[in-house]
Model the fold of this input.
Amino acid sequence: MSVPTITLTESDPTGIAVDALVVGTVQGPDGLALAPGAETVDSAFDGGLVDLLRLLGASGKADEVVKLPTRGAVAAKVLVAVGLGKPAADGGVSSEQVRRAAGAAARALSGTAQAASTLSTIDLAAAAQGTLLGAYAFTSYKSEPGDGPLGEMQLVTSDPAGQRDTLEEATAVAEAVRTARDLVNTPPNDLYPASFAERAAELGRQVGLEVEVLDETALREGGYGGILGVGGGSSRPPRLVRLRYRGENPKAKVALVGKGITFDTGGISLKPAPNMDEMTSDMAGAAAVVASVVLAARLKYPLEVVATVPMAENMPSGTAYRPGDVLTMYGGKTVEVLNTDAEGRLILADAIVRACEDQPDYLIETSTLTGAQVVSLGKRTAGIMGSDEFRDRVATFAQATGEGGWPMPLPEELRADLDSKLADIANVTGHRWGGMLAAGLFLSEFVADGVQWAHIDIAGPAFNTGSPWGYTPKGATGVPVRTIAAVLADIVANG
Ligand code: BES
Ligand code: MN
Ligand code: ZN
Done:
């Protein structure tokens, strides 16, 4: 998939000879106004740019794109005014506003060869990320690729030399998000446990990670009852992938775990047909942690990061596990399966126990785990559970990166509803109340004492079933790669 080339320029934006020049607009207290960076462009229009844009109906609201031919007023052929939305009380705009506007502009520029942007004078990293993420398109399965994304983007800055590292890091993070999106968007007939494991292993090898792949035989020998149970209904057997990065003088050991259900039919507790195709995204947590450990290596974080990634396809068949089965998980706990559609927690239990054997300081697990997450927090806000302090820390970064997330409790009283008449625990409660929290409580049973951990339920945020917005295309979003990257960077800085 082609990626726009991003370069830095010190040039005055009026003199850059490109097809399109992007400037920011805001919804100020008196209506439309120009964002910082557009000053000389406005002068080139004799100070009349705001009036002109108003005539064209511009308001400065987020996701608004208004194009006008420049007819020689500036060197660029077309001016693209993109809305940042309402500024804060002090007149400033946030990184996320810049990222979204840059993304909206990049989407509006698909098919354009050369562009430049002044959004980078507000926040260069956000402008770069927004451009790279907004220009993303997954066209591998199209016979006619169409317009193709934006070709080249020059970002205006007063200090290109001083901003080179910032650009490099922002680009690496955006690359990781794009990798996660590619994996999630790949359809389930091509991305199944063995092929997913092979792609994850290859990504790991490219950056020198230690790679371990357990196939069905190794899983049986190891006693991974959760992964084998869930994966048993499919003709395509399950896998457990481990990717290990060890940075120099690691400051902490971080375990990452992600749900890798390559397709979730529900199994014998079959899902209804409408929208079942969206369950191609049920491995988004796995994709995010694979991309994140690769990113940690690329950015040479002084950390030890190990991703433990269970992969299975949840299918109904003569060999499928049943409601009523009891599974013996890795580590020996037994689970009564009352609903085969609550499969994610079963493969995750095995993976969490395995990850905790390494005695990590922190464990971040992420999964498209419950429809209840979408009911309680909507499509764009992840539910974050875990040990109190670390949960809040992860939620802070989910919000800071603009990915969105909110801390949620693990109410003790729900635990009794997971009691099993037969086994140590059941995989579902007998009711619908607090379904996201009950799933979190189930997972908590498998986390070793003393490990600070967070569970990020991304059932809604991982996959955009609506229209594109900001830098978020239809389909895979790459959430929560940027949250994980920000938490890792914070652990590097603060322990
Ligand atoms: N993969 C689904 C959760 C999901 C739902 C993800 C919607 C994305 C969008 C998960 O495996 C599932 O089926 N969960 C059940 C749990 C229930 C049986 C307790 C659910 O949420 O209905
Ligand atoms: Mn399910
Ligand atoms: Zn699932």
About this structure: The two ends are 37 Å apart (CA to CA). The chain is about 35% helix and 20% strand. The chain has a mean pLDDT of 98.
